[in-house]
Amino acid sequence: MTFREAEAYLLSTINETVSPREPYRLERMRAFLRELGDPQERYPTVHVGGTSGKGSTSLMIAAALEASGRRTGLHTKPHLTSPVERARVDGANVAPERFAQLLASMMPAIERVAARHGRPSYYETLLALAFTHFWEERVDVAVIEVGLGGALDGTNVLQRPQVCVITTVGFDHTDVLGDTLEEIAAEKAGIAKPGVPLVVGVERPEPLAVIAARAAGAGAPLFLVDDFARVLERPQREPDAGQTFAVATPLATYELQTAALGAFQRRNAATAIAALERLREGLRPGVAAVEAGFARLDVPGRMEVVPGNPAIVFDIAHNAEKAERFVAALRERFPNRPFRFVVAIGASKDAREIVRTFAGVASHFAFTRFETVGRVAADPEDLARIGASLGVESEAEANPRTAFAKALREASPEGVVVVTGSTFVVAELRAIHV
User: How would residue 78 be classed by pLDDT, with cut points 50, 70 and 90?
Assistant: First the structure.
């Protein structure tokens, strides 16, 4: 099997997904992994969920572990350019030829599972491939990001992680997870395990109460980030080199310099450190390793700034909570600068709320779309009408590259062109400039 053949096979599985509310989804994932020898149980893991921030928090935890000398696996989603990004060891993507070899070796197990439970989905197959890759690479630890929700997400096959994390709870995937924050929190709290520390960065009292109750019911010791980690301001070391701050805990104070921008990333850093301090002795990285890992951290597509005149910012803000955090970061990083937004949004998202949030800083909207298998974009004309109704100059351009080029051409030299919304539009346009 070649890498191109592996990609083609995976694309053929995209429309064979199963709702996370259907209980046999985890049964299929468990059966699939049993056929592969349960690779996910061969190394310690850190399990990270939440509405926003779980990807960045996972990257931060992995970076600190790598800097401590631990061979570290990392599974996050979605990928920006290639599925090989979903199985990383010490920061390196699985090689395309190795990816194809792994998938080919998994095909007999896929066929056996398909006969009894239906063919594993795109997500399940990529997750199983990552688990297998980490086992074969003999990792010391793996950081695993939840895909969707928690209770019935494919990653919840992990029986006893070292620590579980819930970063935030907000409105996203309401068609699957529920219509209230309490319902969504209950789904996310499904990753709690008996005796496994549950680190929670959630601040809103209603979902936090649900998580606390679920943790108590599961016998999971609860650690609130606000009780164990505090962000401290520090003078900026270099104006254009990320941000400088500290995180203080009862155990230590971590002096951090990182390329990850925005107050939301400082919050993610506090959450990551609270989780790292819950790891068992011998796996927990020291202060110097945490500081070194954060200094090397790269968070592509999350408040990612490309300097210039105009400057360009790429950020995957595909739900209302991410949009709020992103807008706050833009205000902090670029005070009193005009913003031109290039935006595409998935059809299943709350487009009005996302655009309403962006309208708080946008001087102009160029709404566009993306083309990808198994995903549908909101109509740019519909989005432009929303933008106009909010009092922001808005236009629709179906071709994202045309919309981007026009925004760069028409932006003032002191302005900022923002590419945001769907992962797919950020990935396509980021590839041009990064």
Answer: confident
What is the rounded radius of gyration, in angstroms, for the C-alpha atoms of the chain? Answer: 21
Lookup: tokens for 273:
């450190």
Q: Which domains does the chain have, with CATH numbers?
A: 3-295 (3.40.1190.10), 304-433 (3.90.190.20)
Q: State yes or no: cis peptide before 310, omega within 30 of 0.
A: yes
**257, 241 in Cβ contact below 8 A?**
yes
Residue of 73 and 171 predicted with greater confidence: 73
**Cα separation values, 420 from 179, 196, 209, 266, 428, Å:** 25, 36, 32, 21, 11
User: How far apart (Å, rounded) are the C-alpha atoms in residues 382 and 239?
Assistant: 39
Q: How confident is the model at residue 241 (pLDDT cuts 50, 70, 90)?
A: low
Strand locations in 6-50 (E)? 45-49
Which residue, 361, 360, 354, is CA-closest to 378? Answer: 354
H-helix or E-strand containing 306? strand 304-306
> Across-strand partners of 401?
none
The one-letter code for the residue type at 257 is: Q
Reduced to 3 states (helix: H, G, I; strand: E, B; else coil), residue 427 is helix
Place of tokens 């609860």: 222
Residue 190 CA to residue 211 CA, distance in Å, equals 9
Q: How far is CA 121 from the centre of its chain?
A: 20
Which residue is listed with tokens 């350019």?
81
Which tokens is 302 given? 């999350």
Q: Are the C-beta atoms of residues 100 and 6 closer than 8 Å to each other?
A: yes
- Cα distances (Å, whole numbers) of residue 38 to 32, 43, 62, 157, 280: 9, 11, 22, 10, 23
How many CB atoms within 10 Å of residue 100?
Answer: 20
Note the helical H segments in 137-231: 174-177, 181-188, 205-218, 225-228
Tokens of residue 146, six digits: 């939840």
Give the pLDDT score at 17. Answer: 45
- Give first-to-last CA distance, the chain, whole Å: 31
Could you give the strand order of the β-sheet that contains 253-258, starting from the edge strand earlier in sequence? Answer: 230-233, 243-248, 253-258
